[in-house]
Specification:
seven-stranded mixed sheet; single chain; alpha/beta; nine-stranded mixed sheet
């Protein structure tokens, strides 16, 4: 039993779809392009405002300047931090995080302290012992006492992985009662970029989470694998002038807080109810990492912690697509691609597939703002894989056969119909449809006389050359060649492919055909004589064009089908071609055609005629040229002629005669003006009755 074409086509598409999905699912499971996904996802991060601004007290170049600041960072005393904390606490921040790892107690004594102690010899020795004994260093005591004085301070702990086992490195004062500890170590992705934090290591929270707890702020964490992807909203802040103006994070130099000498325009009241971070902000001190929002400029760790806090407070959590979601997206892409490849022409299929890929990428930033990081590799790459597999399959199974079939079939039927038959044979049936089209008929003038003078073989060869030129112009403008009948051509525009401008196309084709006639005749004059001594003739042709509804479709029987058009407008077009003989015009169009081309072409009124076999009359016009291409003399002739026509229909026959005579003075061979001048001579002497309808009835075809 023969499988119906549509079912066979569907099964082939299903097979290709399964092949595509198999390849893509293997890629998703294997994930060889993980780094590519990370790279592409960087473009999804964009700067935007947050609802929870944070302040950073920056250990910057100014703060460690020997003259203006506190000196080299390696020599800083713990008392500096104590004083900054006390100065901050005056303004009631919700929490203070110290992004500095205090791994060991202080050692040694500063020259400044030595000078102070030795000023009193009686106590000098006992005071110096404080710097060398087993007790805490005096600076550390001051620092720790300051930490203990408040319950909203978080200090930094390190995290490292040793032999697969996590190990937390605490600061030397980890057992101090009031000091909260948060793990500040950040881990990079496989491309070296910091994208997420680990929420808890054992029971110790991340630095950012510990700060939220210290500030007594409500928050929730995503139910994921103990990770929070940071939703970066601020790029690296490098311009010092922007530190105080940034909406999300304001940065104040450490030394300014230490001295309570704040920059102009900044009030320390800003610290109230804010989370304040103290950390390194100088490239010379390290602690800088690359981030997805600005992968070419390293961001300091303290700013990364700030944005992690903002992510949690804003609830702006991100997550990557799961393997299942990637598979679903890939399946949808495969469906779109496979359906396009097996139902559309290649150029349209490519367009749909490119549009699907573009839409996916365009939607990615919007979906990112909703919290989902689309996989930008495997779903889009599905489209490429589909193109490769789909068209490879079609080439091996269809295209070679179609090419041979098209070459053979195209010799006998219209190319559009051949394509239709090849793409989907099931559409070739006997059904027709009503559609508005424009028909075009041509016929060679005095063909009978020409044919009598030529040998049959020479006549056929000349007709073939003539048809090749004229048919090429028709198809160039989108027309469908219906048939060649003797010396006549029947064509139509607007079917089988719908065309909104079918009337314009037909008129453009007719004018170009008239233009192409002279070069063809010039060539014939230069060609050698034909066999048997026949001379190539000077030929001319006429064109009739009409527009309206017709029945178009495949007409015939199972073994011989012809795509054609039928209806009154087809008959009218044929009659208009013949009517050119009566008025000695070359291209005659109907009033319905004029209605669709008005303003684009120059035309002149011919007559109101009733063609043989029709009761209704129609106005007909001569198509002259595209608008604006008449010479000044031609425009004057047309103006006088149109004025004469207006007088004629107003029954002012004497005035009309005068206008037509003016035309004949300028152009004595203007046949239409001669016709109307003759009518007016009669009508001025024998005026018509009031019920005269101006209609001229054609007595022959």
């Amino acid at each position: 039993m023969k499988i119906p074409y549509t079912i066979k086509r569907t099964l082939e598409a299903l097979l290709v779809f399964i092949m595509i999905i198999a390849v893509v699912l293997l890629l998703i499971w294997w994930n060889p392009l993980a780094k590519t996904q990370l790279l592409l996802s960087n473009f999804l991060y964009q700067e935007s405002e947050t609802d929870h601004p944070i302040a950073i007290v920056a250990i910057d170049n100014k703060s460690r300047n020997i003259n203006q600041g506190l000196g080299e960072f390696k020599d800083w005393r713990r008392t500096y931090y104590a004083k900054v904390i006390e100065n901050l606490q005056k303004h009631q921040p919700s929490a203070i995080g110290i992004d500095i790892f205090f791994d060991n107690p202080s050692k040694g004594i500063s020259a400044e302290d030595v000078q102070k102690i030795t000023q009193n010899p009686l106590t000098a020795f006992s005071e110096l012992l404080k710097y060398t004994g087993e007790d805490l260093h005096p600076d550390d005591k001051i620092f720790i006492n300051t930490l203990n004085e408040y319950d909203n301070i978080v200090s930094f702990a390190r995290y490292e992985n040793v032999g697969g086992e996590p190990r937390i490195l605490y600061p030397f004062f980890k057992n101090i009662e009031n000091v909260k500890i948060g793990i500040g170590t950040v881990e990079s992705s496989e491309d070296g970029i910091i994208r997420e934090i680990t929420n808890y290591v054992e029971e110790t929270p991340a630095f950012s989470i510990a700060l939220l707890e210290a500030a007594n702020l409500e928050y929730s964490l995503p139910k994921t694998n103990n990770k929070t992807i940071i939703n970066y909203r601020t790029k690296v802040l490098q311009d010092l002038d922007s530190w105080l103006n940034n909406r999300n994070i304001r940065i104040i130099p450490f030394v300014d807080v230490y001295n309570e000498n704040y920059p102009e325009g900044f009030s320390p009241e800003y610290f109230k109810d804010k989370i304040v971070l103290i950390g390194v902000y100088d490239k010379g001190l390290g602690d800088a990492y690359f981030t997805p929002i600005d992968p070419n400029n390293a961001m300091f760790g303290v700013q990364i912690h700030a944005q992690a806090i903002q992510t949690i407070l804003d609830g702006a959590f991100l997550r990557n697509m799961t393997t299942q979601e990637q598979a679903i997206a890939a399946i949808l892409m495969a469906l779109i691609a496979t359906a396009s490849i097996f139902t559309l022409k290649a150029r349209y299929a490519f367009g749909i597939i490119i549009a699907a890929g573009a839409a996916y990428f365009i939607a990615a930033p919007y979906i990112f703002r909703q919290g989902l990081i689309l996989n930008l590799v495997y779903p889009p790459i599905t489209l490429i894989i589909a193109l490769i597999i789909g068209y490879a399959y079609r080439f091996l199974t269809e295209f070679k056969q179609k090419s041979l079939l098209h070459s053979a079939l195209g010799r006998y039927v219209n190319k559009d119909i051949a394509n239709q038959a090849i793409e989907d044979p099931s559409q070739i049936d006997l059904n027709g449809e009503k559609r508005e089209i424009t028909v075009l008929f041509t016929d060679i003038k005095d063909f009978t006389g020409i044919s009598e003078k030529l040998h049959p073989q020479n006549l056929v060869n000349l007709l073939n050359e003539y048809f090749q030129v004229m048919a090429g112009i028709i198809t160039k403008h989108g027309g469908t060649i219906d048939k060649f009948e003797g010396d006549a051509i029947m064509a139509f525009f607007g079917a089988p492919t719908p065309q909104n401008n079918h009337a314009i196309r037909a008129c453009e084709a007719a004018l170009e055909m008239r233009t192409a006639l002279k070069p063809l005749l010039d060539k014939w004059h230069q060609d050698p004589s034909l066999p048997n001594g026949d001379k190539k003739p000077d030929l001319d042709f006429r064109v009739g064009i009409s527009t309206g509804e017709a029945i178009v479709g495949n007409i015939g029987f199972e073994d011989h089908i012809e795509y054609t058009a039928m209806g009154d407008i087809v008959n009218l077009g044929s009659r208009l071609e013949s009517a050119n003989k009566k008025y000695q015009t070359h291209i005659m169009i109907s009033d319905a055609t004029l209605a669709q081309i008005d303003g684009l072409f120059d035309v002149r009124f011919v007559d109101v005629i009733r063609v043989k076999g029709k009761q209704n009359a129609t106005k007909v016009y001569e198509l002259l040229c595209t608008h604006g291409n008449l010479s000044s003399d031609q425009r004057e002739i047309l103006r006088l002629y149109n004025q004469g026509v207006r007088y004629y229909f107003d029954r002012k026959f004497i005035e009309a005669l005068d206008e037509f005579n003016k035309v004949l003075e300028l152009h004595p061979r203007d046949f239409l003006s001669d016709i109307y001048a003759g009518r007016c001579e009669i009508l001025k002497r024998y005026p018509p009755t009031h019920d005269w309808d101006f209609v001229y009835t054609m007595e022959s075809k």
